[in-house]
């Protein structure tokens, strides 16, 4: 399988190269040159298999000869052994035809573990074979950083540095980053906000001398391997509910468009998905794009579902590539309009296709809180604010009532205890396996919002 850039001007890569590179050199994102197909019989044969076996069968066509079958099975087994549920990604039920896909049974209680645990293991095998070491640097508003640290802690070939805004992540999120004791884990509290962290990260990638000296690598959500890992659970959920003999719909709380793009990939591969619904909070750029045909950035407004407080949805570029018949030059033009003027207009053909594939809705803060309250009253379940956004939008966009609707539950309620307590009066408890999180010693380096200071900290902090 070859990977091509969405902007058409970077070299084609194989899976391993695309995974280790992240962003293409022309500024684009890597996508497979075509979508592998799974037949109705192959999908039917997934029924009753373990999550790991489904993961192997769904992802195998994408990885080419990067890993042998035995290596790949081993990678998958190690990735999901850390999950606190035998089904890995179980379903639960909210009403007769509405289901939750619980993506929060990984070590940091958010869905990013599903992909990050897998790519930690894939990096380790690929780097060991190359005799190479890398320095992973990431910026986080909370969930991505803790998932990356959990995935890479203790791995020989990797040092991981996470920049987070000092004082602006929740206590649970901070402790998940500062309590791992392995020498290759480095939590950096930056005196600034999330945008500062992201800007300094970008500066580091643009400093080619530094980039080469430390072997800089990125694992943010534009990494193709992360999207690929997320395709798997659309298959496990749909097959549990009767696919391929029955259609299933999904509603996805969306920020960077990675998770829902994985659903689109599953559909392209042959999974009979009826509707794919984009659910946004008050930062509703994607919902507005479906309504108006114009992708128009506005300022980010903080919300109680902070992991979706995003203004530029990076992975949307991958969809644009398909909407424009895989013409890199057309995508390049849109992205330059966005960079120069803060917006772009979709062609009529692209808007029509977008609306054929997706539906969308938004939930404001009051609606999100009311949904948490209502779900607690009607089912006894306590959901996180991101999941509540999805449930609210799913209720509005239900479509054919005979088709099961699955809402992706992207985080555990205990990760966002303040918002949940405000809505229900109950403070959600951490699962038993991390009940001692607040007793573990913290280890963190405070750094100024300054490129040279951050680079020095990283150079000196790496293991030789
Ligand atoms: C990252 C995240 C999202 C958004 O996912 P995208 O792939 O960026 O669309 C939603 N909910 C939670 C809890 C997250 O951590």
Characterization of the model:
The chain is α/β, with parallel strands linked by helices and 464 residues long. The protein has a domain at 91-106 and 224-424: Rossmann fold, CATH 3.40.50. It is built from 19 helices and 15 strands. A six-stranded mixed β-sheet has the order 3-4-14-9-10-13, with helices on both faces. Strand 5 (134-139), helix 6 and strand 6 form a beta-alpha-beta unit. Helix 3 (51-63) crosses helix 4, helix 3 (51-63) packs across helix 10 and helix 10 crosses helix 11 (258-268). The longest helix is centred in the N-terminal third of the chain and has 19 residues, at 112-130. The protein is globular and about 60 Å long. The model has no long low-confidence stretch (mean pLDDT 95).
* Helix and strand composition category: alpha/beta
- Characterize the biggest β-sheet: 6 strands, mixed
* Poorly predicted regions: none
CATH class of the domain at 91-106 and 224-424: Alpha Beta
Number of helices: 19
Helix content: 40-55%
Which CATH architecture of the domain at 91-106 and 224-424 is right? Answer: 3-Layer(aba) Sandwich
CATH topology of the domain at 91-106 and 224-424: Rossmann fold
| Span of the ends, CA to CA | 35 Å
Rounded Rg: 21 Å
Let me know the average pLDDT.
95
Kindly report the oligomeric state of this protein.
single chain
Assign an overall shape: globular
Beta-strand fraction estimate: 15-25%
Number of strands: 15
Strand order of the largest sheet: 3-4-14-9-10-13
Bound small molecules, by name, code or SMILES, are: pyridoxal-5'-phosphate
């Amino acid at each position: 399988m070859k990977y091509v850039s969405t902007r058409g001007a970077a070299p084609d890569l194989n899976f391993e190269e695309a995974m280790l590179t992240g962003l293409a050199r022309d500024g684009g994102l890597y996508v497979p040159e075509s979508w592998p197909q799974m037949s109705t019989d192959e999908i039917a044969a997934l029924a009753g298999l373990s999550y790991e076996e489904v993961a192997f069968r769904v992802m195998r066509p994408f990885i080419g000869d990067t890993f042998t079958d035995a290596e790949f099975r081993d990678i998958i087994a190690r990735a999901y052994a850390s999950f606190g549920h035998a089904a890995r990604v179980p379903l639960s039920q909210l009403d007769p035809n509405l289901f939750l896909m619980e993506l929060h049974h990984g070590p940091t209680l958010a869905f990013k573990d599903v992909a990050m645990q897998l790519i930690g293991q894939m990096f380790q095998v690929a780097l060991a074979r190359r005799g190479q070491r890398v320095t992973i640097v990431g910026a986080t508003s909370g969930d991505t950083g803790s998932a990356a640290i959990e995935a890479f802690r203790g791995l020989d070939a990797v040092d991981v540095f996470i920049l987070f805004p000092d004082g602006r992540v929740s206590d649970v999120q901070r402790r998940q980053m500062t309590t791992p004791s392995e020498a290759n884990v480095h939590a950096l509290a930056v005196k600034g906000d999330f945008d500062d962290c992201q800007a300094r990260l970008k500066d580091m990638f643009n400093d080619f001398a530094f980039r080469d000296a430390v072997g800089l690598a990125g694992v943010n959500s534009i990494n193709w391997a992360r999207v690929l890992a997320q395709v798997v659970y659309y298959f496990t959920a749909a097959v549990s509910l009767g696919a391929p003999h029955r259609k299933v719909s999904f509603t996805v709380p969306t920020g960077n468009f990675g998770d829902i793009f994985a659903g689109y990939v599953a559909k392209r591969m042959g999974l009979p998905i009826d509707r794919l619904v984009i659910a946004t909070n008050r930062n509703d750029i994607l919902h507005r794009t479906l309504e108006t045909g114009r992708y128009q950035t506005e300022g980010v407004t903080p919300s109680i579902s902070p992991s979706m407080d995003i203004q530029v949805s990076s992975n949307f570029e991958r969809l644009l590539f398909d909407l424009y018949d895989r013409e890199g030059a057309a995508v390049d033009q849109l992205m330059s309009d966005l960079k120069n003027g803060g917006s772009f207009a979709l062609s009529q053909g692209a808007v029509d296709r977008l609306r054929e594939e997706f539906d969308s809705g938004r939930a404001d803060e009051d609606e999100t809180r009311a949904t948490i309250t209502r779900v607690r009253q009607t089912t006894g379940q306590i959901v996180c604010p991101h999941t509540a956004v999805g449930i609210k939008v799913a209720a509005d966009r239900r479509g054919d009532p005979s088709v099961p609707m699955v809402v992706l539950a992207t985080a555990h309620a205990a990760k966002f205890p303040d918002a949940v307590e405000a809505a229900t009066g109950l403070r959600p408890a951490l699962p038993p396996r991390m009940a001692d999180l607040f007793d573990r010693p913290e280890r963190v380096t405070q750094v100024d919002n300054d490129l040279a200071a951050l680079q020095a900290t990283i150079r000196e902090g790496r293991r030789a």
